[in-house]
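Q: Predict the assembly, please.
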Amino acid sequence: MSKHALPGEYSLPDLLCCAASREVRDNEVVFAGTGLPMVAILLAQRTHAPNLKLIFEAGTLDGRPPELPTSVGASCCEIGASRSSGLNDAFSIAQRGYVDLGYLGGAEVDQYGNVNTTCIGDYLHSELRLTGSGGNPDINSFASRTVFIMLHEKRRFVNNVSYITSPGWRVKKWPGGEFVHRRDLYGSAFRGGPSAVISTVGVFRFDEETGCMFLDTCHPGKTPEEIKDLCQFDLDISRVKGETEVPTLEELRIIHEVLDPEEIFIPKIKKHAHA
Amino acid sequence: MSKHALPGEYSLPDLLCCAASREVRDNEVVFAGTGLPMVAILLAQRTHAPNLKLIFEAGTLDGRPPELPTSVGASCCEIGASRSSGLNDAFSIAQRGYVDLGYLGGAEVDQYGNVNTTCIGDYLHSELRLTGSGGNPDINSFASRTVFIMLHEKRRFVNNVSYITSPGWRVKKWPGGEFVHRRDLYGSAFRGGPSAVISTVGVFRFDEETGCMFLDTCHPGKTPEEIKDLCQFDLDISRVKGETEVPTLEELRIIHEVLDPEEIFIPKIKKHAHA
Amino acid sequence: MSIDKRITLQQAVEIIKDGSRLTFSGFTIWRRPMAVVYELIRQHRKGLHLIEVNGGSHTEFLVGAGCVDIWESCWVGHELYGKYGANVSRKVREKSLIVEDYSHAEMLYRFAAASQGVPYAVGQTSLGTDIHNPEYDMLGRAGLRDGKRIAKHKYIFTEDSFYGAGSLVLVPAAKVDIAVLFVHQVGEEGTVRINGQFYSDPEVARAADTTIVVAEEIVPEEYLRRDSTRNNIPSFEVDYILECPFGAHPSGVFGRYDVDGEFLKHFYATTRTQEGFDAFAKEWIHGHDQLSYLEKLGWSRMLNLRANSALNYTPRKTKGGN
Amino acid sequence: MSIDKRITLQQAVEIIKDGSRLTFSGFTIWRRPMAVVYELIRQHRKGLHLIEVNGGSHTEFLVGAGCVDIWESCWVGHELYGKYGANVSRKVREKSLIVEDYSHAEMLYRFAAASQGVPYAVGQTSLGTDIHNPEYDMLGRAGLRDGKRIAKHKYIFTEDSFYGAGSLVLVPAAKVDIAVLFVHQVGEEGTVRINGQFYSDPEVARAADTTIVVAEEIVPEEYLRRDSTRNNIPSFEVDYILECPFGAHPSGVFGRYDVDGEFLKHFYATTRTQEGFDAFAKEWIHGHDQLSYLEKLGWSRMLNLRANSALNYTPRKTKGGN
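A: Predicted assembly structure:
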């Protein structure tokens, strides 16, 4: 196994990408979005999970793109794929239960893993409308596990997200809107939920019974208390396992020389930069 | 226009085939089954309706088979087609309302045009199970017009069919099973119904308000009274227009020299045979 | 790549247990996995629950051999080579086979729903027919609607509240344990390429819990992936693969071989009775394997069925007889 | 054959009336009929009701130009060339645009239902999210749910009675007056061939009452019919056709040209304000036709976007910049 990088040899995006990559197990069916998640999955495909099956929402099934796609609709997605088709296939496969793991992002998250990608502020008097849901709730509803990659700021790890775009472990039961365990709402479609949030300060997981987030590992240089202070809700830091594993030199080589040499999603570390 | 054939120059299947062919208008989308209907449609395509769009249930859209297919799943169906795919396409297109005309067969028919292709006798204690519905009810439910081609015997033109496989103009409303007008049951999916029954003795049409069959034309040599006698129900013979138009020489040439030279569905007339 | 999906014909049939809910690729007398059907008969599989978009000669073989207890579908016959399904008809008359009738479109919708992971489909077909007659819910009458392996209801009738479209019929997803497909090519990782009409094979493969693909040829996965839009079923939906040339005979395969109409006519003519079926099975199925079956068919017969590879079908003028 | 389906770009846009329910081919920033979008803006079309599986740069153009009153979809942005839909966001803030949010899968199901001729689809996605919040039914709040052009309900919640699968959500079919597609090839009779991922184009074409196909090339119908399994949309689903080379720019077309990322970045950077949008439209849209637009883009820019025809994409190492 390749040596781990030393502080200063990797950047924060490198760390996130490698942490995300390690969430994939070999032979899994993985539903990938554009951006850093795509780099993480292709990294896994080139390291410990050579047989993962990659699905792109736009209609590529078991894809092996020759270079990093800039979006899931891009032309290189389908090169080498098992089948290229369309969204009906991709979402049918997801709803049918073939997907093991999904990678997603978000602007806000609450303690149950409910994520917002729709708007900031009151939905009915929106100050800033974001991109909207896209496939975020769909992948999250259907996959057995989902991993969220997020920028960590106190205004983003909140008591209540402005809008629940993507369902966490405890969700709203309509028409009343009271919170119930996801399992009670999804019935036979219940297959799991958010399994990790990888933020810029640590890796978080969920107690599947209470539905609450807890801190799993701290990124190098961060303490549990610091991280707790960066959440509006009362983060459980009693189960911290230690430090997030840092990138190996081989992972860094693949990210920067093979996958993203043009620094489309992950900038190369500058000589004077810090991890 | 080609001359009409004289008695003795055509057979009864020739007459049925040509009568069926004349039900197609140019540019229509036609849903075709195997057998004599297929010959009739290909005849129309080669005479007055060169731009008809032919759909085969197995998944061929706008097909132009180079020779007469022996079934809708056959390999030559898709040669020259606009698109070849599968049943999901074919039935989606039908339910979406693209189909103008369907051609069907049946073992029994009642005065409302309800047709049976499922069993003879009590369904729950079946003496003879037939092929079953196939796409008969589906094509009939969705097309604007349907044409049935049937062998005419008194035991086939009945008061009550053993089993309503394919819906006529008055159908059963479940759970009670009382007869209602098709329009009242199909709602926005109502687009029409059986427009003709072409039997071995005449051509029958339907009063779309009462839903009842009436005699439109008698095949050469048959009288309205004879035909009425061949129905269990009280056939309306007050609207007879005259005699069924006989095949033209050109139509006969296309049937026997171009479409079905091997006599797969339509035997050639023997020297000593009568029309 | 890491998981070897190859199995033998015998292993394929061992995966299909007595009582399995089973379905197949193909359409009436086209692209049916007949080699598997024969082996099921040889291994005396019992109590099968067939759920099929449509039936065909293969249904007649399995039903005639007594392998099937329940058949849910819409049609059985041999197209122009035999007017109806005489074995199904006989077993229905004897009440040794439960037949649950849906329409053709309904059967397709049922598989489409299952393939999409939803419990039912919405349709407006066949309203007012006896297909929807509540008295004719045969699985209900037999007390088999447990809501798990077999849906609690044959149908549910409802009205549309979105657009006032009127009466709707809801049909339950077709849940099957195993789908057996016969296709042109399969890659080592399971990618399937079908030539010509693909019928309802993609829905069937995705609906089944386990999918077995029998192919004319196993080809390099890399070859199929050079043109991914031509492939019909993705690798990960296929659990097991095997190569079985001419394994669809007597059904036909687009671009490869025609339906063996003479064979089906003979089957139809001789299997109206159980004694007739048993004699046929003794001659053509039992004591054979796939190779000895092909030997028995002989070269002349098979060459006559061969499709012209430029045309993808067997032009009648090049054929002897018919 | 008898019906000439060819029209001009101007005629295409005249078919789309003020207030039409409209949808498009493509996916985010791929294969969007931009030439038609530009012409809609030139002809000052008003009150459009866009219903889209997903939005993209083309949505931003139409919304920025004030052509759109209602947008039903799930996403808008420029992928990595612009973080969000700034024009949509601005119009929502100003309350001059009604946005009805569904999830991506739900939008797809809505079009699939419409393409199958059923009034709604069944799904289990997005349960428990604010997408299903009854307070956020924006078309309902606006009193626009007439049950004819717009479904009576945004959602209906129900339970499965067939298998006890639990909570289900029913979403109304996406009924649209017109779909405008941009594709690789169309035949004179309307047969469409798309290369690469076909996204949700087949559903969209079948769902619409009128389908207009804009193609890189009009090709002989007979050429397409030589290989009918490669075609995606049958002739009779297409009402009008026109040829418009590079008519998807700045969106990308598989095997032909890449997304013009620099163009989209420039659009995103300069159209956050209405004044910015108006200046952009003045420079790039008004007073132009498709040819003068291409002239303004220039050869160097377009050659740089060209896909390698062996690879079907534009490898980054061969490109200047980016």
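Chain D has one domain: 1-124+171-322. The radius of gyration of chain D is 20 Å.
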